[in-house]
Specification:
Blueprint lengths: L2 H9 L10 H40 L2 H23 L4 H21 L2 E3 L12 E8 L8 E6 L2 E3 L2 E4 L1 E7 L2
Parallel strand pairs: 2-6
Antiparallel strand pairs: 1-4, 3-6, 4-5
């Protein structure tokens, strides 16, 4: 016999003789079932723990791609600030740099399906708007958005930030 065969034979469970007594047979089957249950429970618990670690890592790093892209904007702003400090009287170049960064940011938002919530002149909807003020407006329908204090945004079909607005009311 080779060492490999000896190893295989030593790892194989020894066949157990069937007990003649039915009670002993039941105890043996119960022991085997209990052993299977414990192993299955341990396997399930390990799988649950692994799933939780993977889920935690996914949540922690889910926004990594967006952060990496945002670093480009951060660096663009650093360069714009440095250029403004170098020649503070050149407002046209500063504005051009800021507009370029703004355009890139708009592209990023579009890429991730982030859209501004259209508000002004629309009917107030509490799912999309948060009313901060109300103003009497005889020329407008009750509950019409008159002014936007802070824009609201959607990510796909989900509202990620409601718009802060002023709405009309009838006297």
């Amino acid at each position: 016999m080779t060492d490999e065969n000896i190893k295989d034979e030593s790892e194989a469970p020894e066949p157990q003789a069937e007990p003649a007594d039915p009670a002993e047979k039941m105890k043996q089957e119960l022991g085997e079932a209990k052993d299977k249950y414990i192993r299955l429970f341990a396997e399930f618990d390990n799988m649950r723990k692994r799933h939780e670690r993977e889920r935690t890592a996914l949540i922690k790093y889910a926004h990594e791609e967006v952060i990496i892209e945002m670093l480009g904007f951060f660096e663009d702003f650093e360069r714009t600030i440095a250029a403004a400090r170098k020649s503070p009287s050149d407002a046209k170049e500063l504005l051009k740099g800021i507009e370029m960064v703004y355009g890139r940011m708009q592209q990023l938002l579009k890429k991730y399906d982030v859209r501004e919530i259209e508000c002004e002149g629309k009917k107030f909807d509490p799912h999309f708007h948060e009313a901060l003020m109300a103003e009497d407006a005889a020329d407008r329908e009750d509950g019409t958005v008159l002014e936007v204090f802070q824009k609201g945004y959607m990510l796909g079909d989900r509202v990620v930030r409601t718009a802060k607005v002023k709405v009309s009311r009838k006297q």
